[in-house]
Design brief:
- With 439 residues, the protein is α+β, with helices and mostly antiparallel strands.
- Helix content is 12%, strand content 26%.
- The protein has a domain of 238 residues.
- A hairpin with a 5-residue loop joins strand 11 and strand 12.
- Helix 1 packs antiparallel against helix 2.
Length: 439
Amino acid sequence: MIKLMFLSIPLFFFFFPYYASAAYTWQFTSQPRQCQNVSIDVQGSGQPPYSFLLIPNGPSPLPNNTEVRTIQNIPFPGSSSSLSFNLNYPEGSSFVAVVSDSSGFGTGGTSTPVTVLDSSDSSCYNPTKGIQLPWLFYIEPSNVIQCDSVRWWWGQDLVNGTVNFYGVIPGGNSFNIPQGPLSTNTVTGTGFSWTADISSGTNILIIGGDDRGIGSGGVAPYTVAPSANSSCLNSTSPSSTAGNPAGGSYPTSTSGWSNGSSGGHSNTGLIAGGIAAGLVVIVAIALIAFFYPRRRGYSAVGRPVNVLHDDEDDHGPHRDAPHYYTPEPYLVPDPTIGRTFEATSTPHRPITMTTADIPRPAPRTTTRKNAPPPQRRTVNIIQHDDAGPSEIPMRAGEPDTIELPPAYANIRPAQRPPSTVPTRTTASSTPALTKTTTS
């Protein structure tokens, strides 16, 4: 057991950096509704000041696809960990939110797309007037490909100061896109190349900004295309984060409020939660190590189940089987057969049926107490002859002949005549001869 506990300690310290990196998180404290105040709250040991980035996601629900949503980077007041602002997005639209602190962009985590709920107030936007961005960026080739180089470019005369790009993966990582050496040509303007170290199939929002702030160049959604090259991917590559996204509880449809909890990059829990989880793992392994040998030893000396309750040492109180399991000997009936006969036949096969009363003798041995007296029963004995070819049916009017086999019922031992004793003739029993003389 102690050995297993020591083995579990390295596992805890292996996962400890993951929990330790989750210094703070954030969540919505009110429902995001059209033209209503929305509140969020930060928990944990972040480094203020904080900022809240609001990014439009998906098409506009307004007529003619009029886009009235702008990217907004809203700072928290001072070193406060709470923020309330007016959401000027129309109902039915969605957005993705990112929280950052002074240590870097996206350190608080990224939400999944959040749907704006309805309200009776729609005065915060003009549904017929779309927004106008000061500049736009472009991509060459036309899509982001896994581990492939892509060129971001723009019109240099439209930007103000330094251009910056950001990558936002809904429900996952948010990060700065590193800017390589700038180059200019007559076809693609000014730009730089970037290798997309992101797994294929990942949805990502690319945001362009300059000195006027994040989002001054707009936002463009992409899905990373597959590639045979995966050499750029490693454990630090941006990706969607397993578990629940950042933002806590927020709606994912206009039908109501959906439940979620904190997640995303660097916001999967607090350090205390990581320590508690590690302790739970250690205690669980210790309990398993403690009970497993005991369970194994018990099963080694356990006795097999005997359904007849028979003891292996032949000295138990249940050595004799229950009375309903006691075997009963098969009794052979007395061969004495009565002499009552009844002859029957069928149209195709002659039979001889003998009905006799066979007395059932009393059993020789029995293990039951108070056994019932022997009963007499009637036995029907049917004797079949060998089947032969069917006889030709008789013509009408002729008597039917039924042949029965010999019954051997009248065979008796031959009676011998009474023994006679020969009579001996003596002179006394022989009549006297008369002698005649002539005188």
